[in-house]
């Protein structure tokens, strides 16, 4: 039997799976960490944290599989997917990191966004890249480094996405997959599937800072260097496959390989996306080549910066009683206690609405100065009301993106697939069904991007055919159907949700720290 390993570097943890050629899980491991947030709206990570986590996850999976009789020679490939690394990692001529990676949720590049708006032909930039202007995008973060870290800028040889940097360490080969390149935004020609010299010139970013080799997500970048054999338990020369941006890889894991299929990945953040062959940047979504059939299909998506992060923030700041009560139970899960209480609160949270803009907001708002809010509070409301309001607020943000996406999609399937930590919540799945009007499906197996990475590894190593990969390895389970009465109520509340941001925007901006 042949085996492969899929690794996903996430914002708060790295996960790895070792599976056989049919996708059956033999071993899995996760390693947790937190990004650094040295200032409000900043979020960064030194790549050494990711390297340590990746090494631990691979080594633990291999060791577990060895106990089950899997030999190192039977493990044919490793694929690494990763969070959207924003700026990427600035490395010097010796490939040494010069600065923490400014990750996707970092919003510091607001002045650089204004510079782009004032000095660059935006319509031309939209036409070339299929993407807009915001501090979410990696190219504005790169401009921030140029303006605020001149010594780093002067010594930068390349900007490498997280997965590309880790793969370089494993193989000695430098390559960037098309999804990661496209997601940087203003430096990639989305029609030509290549770096855009014209866009780079407009922005003042040297083309030499973009690695020359662009590859498919299922392409073998190189073989594992012998120096890793002992610590990882793998053979020298084991194929290392390029991978891609985690949201697209998770979408691939969910079996999405055809236009019109759509998936919401709800973890720390929320990404809702679908496959299409063209994109219009004016719709306010993000576009990049998909991780499967990248020369044909685009993954077009929008998202909320703080989805699961909003839930975690609320629990940790306001629900100490539930946390302590959970510690006294066998499962130790405060979310379960909060969900049980919130399930007894009627849809609409008795008038409370939550705006989940706790780190600014991405699409379709695109406002780094947007801030979170509870609106409609009274003495009547409890923690359970607010918890439900948080779940509903993130669901409204999802609907906001779906609305924007419908403008460019030829059609969307009548079912919505949800992956990520939110899928563990029955209540949240029902809320999403009621808010969006879609039947909600989740993956039976408790896996997401790591399984997609494993499938890409199998394709790259020839363990699985391209045709078989289109069918995927997972089983979808229907979790919720929309209720007509609740759907009508949520349509009214969603209209209020959409009205709140423009009404509060001037105040949000005035409240920003100087």
From TrEMBL:
Carbohydrate kinase FGGY N-terminal domain residues: 3-252
SUPFAM superfamilies the UniProt entry points to: Actin-like ATPase domain
E.C. designation(s): 2.7.1.-
GO molecular function term, any single one: kinase activity
Domain Carbohydrate kinase FGGY C-terminal: residue ranges: 264-460
CDD domains: ASKHA_NBD_FGGY_RrXK-like (cd07804)
Keyword Nucleus: no
PROSITE patterns assigned to the protein according to its UniProt record, in alphabetical order: FGGY_KINASES_2 (PS00445)
First-tier enzyme category under EC: transferase
Record's keyword terms, sorted: Kinase, Transferase
Protein family membership: Belongs to the FGGY kinase family.
PANTHER family on file: SUGAR KINASE, XYLULOSE KINASE
Protein name according to UniProt: FGGY-family carbohydrate kinase
